[in-house]
Each structure stands twice: as C-alpha cells, then as structure tokens.
Amino acid sequence: MYEFSTSTLLLAFGLTVFAGLGTGVGSLMSFFHKKFNPKFLAAALGFSAGVMIYVALIEIFMKAKDSLEGALGAKNGYWVTTAAFFAGIALIAIIDKLIPDYENPHEMQARPCDPKPALDPNDPRLMRMGFFSALAIAIHNFPEGLATFMAALSDPSLGISIAVAIAIHNIPEGVAVSAPVYFATKSRKKAFWLSLLSGMAEPVGAFIGYFLLRRWFNDITFGFVFAAVAGIMVYISLDELLPTAEEYGEHHVAITGVIAGMAVMALSLVMLS
To answer: Would you give the DSSP letter of residue 241?
Structure first.
C-alpha cells in the first residue's frame, strides 16, 4: 500500500484547485472578450493539448506499465495497462455521450468566445443553457481532477505541468458557462460564481477519488488508475482542446502550439530526470 506525506497530498489537492480556477479566468475573459487575442488563446489551447498528449503517452502510460508489469509480469502487465488506457478513453467518451449536444460545451456549436448567442437576451433558455453547461463541465471535471491529483502524487513537477495544461483547457469552459448566464441575468457576479463553481469539481473529484481508492493504493491500483488517466488526457486533448483551438484561431496556430507544448514538456522531463 502506498503512503504519501501530508505535504505531497496538500500539494496535489492545491494543484487541482489551481486547475479548476481556469473556469473563473474564462468567465472574466468573457466579460472583456474584445481585449484578448483569440489567436493567443488558440495557441495556448494547442500548447495545453501538446503537454497533455506528450506527458500521457511518454510519461504517465510508461509509469503505469512499469507499475503493472512489476506486479503482474511483463505480458500481463502490458495487457492490463493497454486495457486501462482505453477504459479511461471509454469513460470520458461515455460522459460526453450522456450529455445532450446542445448543452454540452465540449460539442462545438459556435465560437465559445462569442457572447452574442442567437437567442434573445431575455430568453429564459439562456439561464438554462448556462446552468446545464456548468453541470456538464462539472461532470467532466471530476476525472480531470483525479488526473491532476494522481500525477502530482507520482511526481510533483509532472503534476504542476498537467495542472497548468488543464487550467488553460478550462478557460473556454468558463466562457461557455458565464456568457449565457450573464445575458440572462445581467449579473456578472452570478455568471462568474456559477462558472467558478463548475471548475471546483476538479478538487472535489480528486478528493472523492482519493478517499475511495486510498485503501487499495498498491502497484496494481496505482498502475491501472494511471493508465486510465493517460487515456482520459489523450481524449480530452483530441476531442476538446484541439477542436476548441481550431475554433478560436487558425489551424497552423493550434498545431504550432501543440508542437511547442510537446517540446517544452519533453525538455522539462529531460532536465528533471
């Protein structure tokens, strides 16, 4: 059974809170959307995707594989690692599937930075849209919080990188919540707090995940969860981050961000190894 120091646990939980704050940043940006450059955000989202894809496939998957192979043997360990990786993808894909497209901010309908929806500003459906967007994001953020938390437990520097990547990824989600709520209520305070609360599902997911799994923290559990986390991160990058980056900016801006994210993550891992 794995044992973690209090400082490591606090750092891991703190990083999930930091990652969740990205929705609050997105909410603030939606109020002053003319003052930021969409291409910059596209590059940042691409950078986030690059960090998450690289670290998921190069670092987290391999940590899971080493852990499971040590406990189950080379062949069985590799099989279980691969199965857990795709189980993580299946989990987050099912969550996406269960949320109606119209209310799911991860299904790109139009640019999420545009706070001028087709609905009339006085239409009560705007508040419903904002509420269900917040609920959808909160559900999504549960496994993302666990991903950040588990990464930080394994390697604090790795956890920091992932927390930054997820915080960037949460920015357009904050916009998706706050824009319709603001137009429905004319209250920036309500829009901001609902958006921020949706992001706080990150630490809640980490907290619940830790207390459900801590009694069974061993090489097999840790390896399985880590492999699933790698799958979740790859899915988030390919299904959410890259399409959103394309919506905000140009294709080459997004891809340049992806490559830059991979390069920075690779360099940091080499320097810290």
So the answer is: I
Q: For 131-190, how does the pLDDT look when each residue is reduced to its tens digit (9 = 90+)? A: 766 777 777 778 778 878 887 887 788 788 888 888 887 887 787 778 777 777 778 888
In a domain, 98, yes or no: yes
Domain for residue 13, yes or no? yes
Please count the other Cβ atoms lying within 10 Å of the Cβ belonging to residue 131: 17
Note whether residue 1 is domain-resident: no
**Which residues constitute the domain of residue 184?**
6-272
Per the CB < 8 A criterion, the answer to whether 2 and 217 are in contact is yes
Q: Which of residues 120 and 188 earns the better pLDDT score?
A: 188
Residues 166 and 13: their CA atoms lie apart, in Å, by 14
CA distance 71 to 210: 21
> How confident is the model over 59-73, as pLDDT tens digits?
889 989 999 999 999
| 186: region left, alpha or beta (phi > 0 left; psi from -120 to 50 alpha) | left
d(CA 47, CA 262): 8
Instruction: Give me the helix-helix angle, 156-185 and 188-199, nearest 10°.
Output: 150
Residue appearing with tokens 């390896």: 223
76/219 Cα distance (integer angstroms): 14
Task: Return the ∠ at Cα 158 (arms to 73 and 193), rounded to 5°.
Answer: 125
